[in-house]
Amino acid sequence: GSNISITIENFKYYCSCYRQYRLNEFNRQINYIQQGLYSIIPYYYLNLFTAKELEEAVCGKDQIDIELLKRNTLYGGDYNKNSPPIERFWIVPM
Q1: Where are the domains of the chain?
Q2: DSSP for 27-83, written as a single string
Q3: What pLDDT, in 10s, does the model give residues 69-86?
Q4: Region of residue 77 (left: phi > 0; alpha: psi -120 to 50; beta: else)
Q5: From CA 44, how far away is CA 57, in angstroms rounded?
Q6: Distances (CA, A) of 88 to 69, 82, 85, 93, 94
Q7: What is the pLDDT along the chain (94 residues), one digit of tens a residue?
C-alpha cells in the first residue's frame, strides 16, 4: 500500500486496512508469548485471574511498603536499625 495514493474515494478503505494492520501487527509475537506462558501455567488457571491480578503476580505491586520492609529486615554483623548507615539507607526509598 505504500505506492498507492490516498484519495477521497479510497480513504475509508485505507483507514479500514490501516486499522486492521495496527490491531494485528503484533499477533505473531503475542501468540509466542501466550504459548510460552501456557506451557508454564495452563490456560484454565490463568483464567481465574483478572488482568490486574495477573499483572500484580507477574510484576509485583506498584507501591512498596517501606515500613513493612523495615519491620521485617534482619541486620547482620555490627549493624542494627539504629546504625548510621542503616538509618541513611532507609531515607533513600522514602
Answers
A1: 1-61, 63-94
A2: HHHHHHHHHHHHHHS-HHHHTTS-HHHHHHHHH--SS--HHHHHHT----TT--TTS
A3: 999 999 999 999 999 999
A4: left
A5: 16
A6: 15, 10, 5, 10, 11
A7: 678 899 999 999 999 999 999 999 999 999 999 999 899 989 899 899 999 998 888 888 878 888 999 999 999 999 999 999 999 999 976 6
For the entire predicted model, the pTM comes to 0.48
Amino acid residing at 41: I
Cell of 83: 546504625
**Residue count of the chain:** 94
